[in-house]
Write a structure and sequence with these properties.
The complex is a heterodimer of chains A (279) and B (103). With 279 residues, chain A is mostly helical. Helices cover 47% and strands 7% of the residues of chain A. Chain A has two domains: 24-69 and 161-278, Cytochrome Bc1 Complex, Chain D, domain 2 (Orthogonal Bundle), CATH 1.10.760.10; 73-154, Cytochrome c-like domain (Cytochrome Bc1 Complex, Chain D, domain 2, Orthogonal Bundle). Chain A has helices at residues 2-39, 57-66, 73-84, 121-131, 142-154, 169-183, 193-199, 233-243, 254-266, and strands at residues 110-112, 117-119, 204-205, 208-209, 222-224, 229-231, 276-278. A three-stranded mixed sheet of chain A has the order 6-5-7. In chain A, strands 1-2 form a two-stranded antiparallel sheet. Chain A is globular and about 55 Å long. The termini of chain A are far apart. Chain B has 103 residues and is an all-alpha fold. In chain B, 81% of the residues lie in helices and 0% in strands. Chain B has helices spanning 4-45, 53-65, 69-96. In chain B, helix 1 runs parallel beside helix 3 (69-96) and helix 2 packs antiparallel against helix 3. The longest helix of chain B is centred in the first third of the chain and has 42 residues, at 4-45. Chain B starts with a helix and ends in a 7-residue tail after the last helix. At the A-B interface, helix 1, helix 6 and helix 7 of A face helix 3 of B.
C-alpha cells in the first residue's frame, strides 16, 4: 500500500512540475502586462509596441516627423539586396528557412532543443551563411543588421507569439535565466533592467523618459539618431549594461539571447513593427 | 675628509637598500595584482564583473612598467575593491532578484 502511494506520488511529480512550468511564463506575462497597463491606463495594449512613444507625447511627435522620411529605409534596401544575393552554390539565404520570408522574423527567438539553447534571428542567419561556406558576419555589422531590418519590415503587423514549450526543461531554464538577468542588479550603479524599465518607467533620466519593457523587442533593429546608424537589440542590451557600469556580455552571448527570449515572450500578442527609429 | 673606503661602503649599502626596496615593492605589487586579477576573474565567471575593473588593472600594469609602484598599487586596490563588491553583489542577487519579479 505504502509502495503504491509512493509510486503514485513519483508519477505525479513530473506532471505537477509540468503544470507549474506551463503556468510560469504565462502567469509572468499576464502580470507584466497588467503592471504596465495599470501604470499607464490611457495607453492601449497594442500601443506599447511603440516603446517610449506610447508614453511620451513630445518624443512621439518628433518620431512621427522622422517617420515621414524613415532613416532606416537604406537598411531595408540593403537587407533586401543581401537577402536575395546568391550564396556559393547558387542558394539564397531564404533557402535555409522553411517558411515564407514574412514569417521568419516572428519565428525568433526560439529554443532549439537539439542545440539546447536559444537561437535568435541573427544567429540563424549566420548559421545559414556558414552552412554555405561563408564566414559568419559580425553581430554589429551593417550587413547583418540590414538583413534583420529587411525581415523585420516584412513581418510588420504580425503578432509576437514566442513559445516556451512547457514540456522542454531546457526552454523553461533558458526563459528563467533571461528572467533572472532582467531582474538582477548589476554593475557599479547596482541597477537591474527592471529598476529603470519597471520601477522607474516614465520617469526622466536627464532629458529622456524611461520606456516600458512591454514591447521592447518588437521594433528592433532601430536607427539611432545619436549614433547615425542602425543598432541591434543586443547592442541596446550592451549599452544598458554599460550604462550601469557593468561589463557587457558579448553580442549574441547566451546571457543576451536568454534575455531576448524572456523579453520577447513578455511581448506576446503585440505586433512586430520594426525596424524603428529612436533618438 | 671621509676616507674613500668608507665612501664606497656607504654607496654599496645604498645600492643594496635600493635594490631590496625595489624588489620588495615589485614583489608586493605582483602579489597584489595577481590577487586582484583572480578576484576579477571570479566576478567575471559569476557574470557580475564591473565595467572598469579590468582597465584599472591594465592601468596598474602600465604604471608599474613606468616604475611608479605606489600609483600602481592604488589602482590595484581600487580594482580589488570593485571585484570584491561585484562578487558580494552577485552573491546577494542570487536570491534577491526574485523579490522584484512582477507578480
Amino acid at each position: 500500500m505504502k509502495n503504491t502511494a509512493a509510486k503514485l506520488l513519483l508519477c505525479l511529480v513530473p506532471i505537477l512540475w509540468q503544470q507549474a512550468a506551463i503556468a510560469g511564463p504565462e502567469d509572468d506575462r499576464k502580470a507584466f502586462v497588467e503592471y504596465f497597463q495599470s501604470r499607464f491606463p490611457d495607453v492601449s495594449f497594442a500601443e506599447f509596441a511603440n516603446g517610449i512613444y506610447a508614453i511620451d507625447d513630445d518624443a512621439r511627435r518628433q518620431w512621427q516627423d522622422i517617420e515621414e522620411f524613415p532613416p532606416y529605409e537604406f537598411a531595408i534596401e540593403q537587407g533586401e539586396t543581401l537577402w536575395h544575393e546568391a550564396l556559393p552554390g547558387g542558394a539564397q539565404l531564404a533557402d535555409c528557412f522553411e517558411r515564407p520570408a514574412d514569417e521568419i522574423r516572428p519565428a525568433y527567438p526560439r529554443f532549439d532543443a537539439d542545440r539546447g539553447e536559444v537561437v535568435t534571428l541573427a544567429v540563424a542567419i549566420n548559421d545559414c551563411r556558414q552552412t554555405h561556406q561563408l564566414s559568419a558576419l559580425a553581430y554589429d555589422s551593417e550587413e547583418l543588421i540590414s538583413i534583420t531590418a529587411y525581415l523585420a519590415y516584412l513581418a510588420r503587423g504580425k503578432p509576437v507569439a514566442i513559445r516556451v514549450p512547457a514540456d522542454d526543461p531546457g526552454a523553461i531554464a533558458a526563459y528563467e535565466e533571461g528572467k533572472r538577468f532582467y531582474y538582477s542588479k548589476r554593475g557599479q550603479l547596482n541597477f537591474a533592467c527592471s529598476d529603470c524599465h519597471v520601477t522607474s518607467v516614465g520617469l526622466y533620466v536627464r532629458a529622456d523618459r524611461l520606456s516600458a519593457s512591454l514591447g521592447h523587442t518588437t521594433h528592433f533593429p532601430v536607427y539611432r539618431s545619436k549614433l547615425g546608424g542602425m543598432i541591434s537589440l543586443h547592442q541596446r542590451f550592451s549599452g544598458c549594461v554599460r550604462d550601469v557600469r557593468a561589463k557587457p556580455f558579448a553580442l549574441q552571448s547566451k546571457e543576451f539571447r536568454n534575455l531576448e527570449y524572456f523579453l520577447s515572450y513578455m511581448g506576446n500578442g503585440l505586433e512586430f513593427n520594426g525596424p524603428g527609429a529612436r533618438k | 675628509m671621509v676616507p674613500v673606503r668608507a665612501n664606497r661602503s656607504g654607496a654599496l649599502l645604498g645600492v643594496l637598500a635600493a635594490v631590496l626596496m625595489v624588489t620588495g615593492c615589485t614583489t608586493t605589487f605582483e602579489r597584489r595584482l595577481a590577487e586582484a586579477e583572480q578576484l576579477r576573474l571570479e566576478a567575471a565567471a559569476a557574470g557580475a564583473e564591473w565595467l572598469q575593473t579590468e582597465s584599472l588593472l591594465d592601468q596598474a600594469r602600465d604604471e608599474a612598467a613606468q616604475g611608479d609602484t605606489d600609483a600602481a598599487l592604488v589602482l590595484v586596490d581600487k580594482a580589488r575593491f570593485q571585484a570584491e563588491a561585484a562578487l558580494r553583489q552577485a552573491e546577494f542577487e542570487a536570491t534577491a532578484w526574485q523579490e522584484r519579479v512582477i507578480k
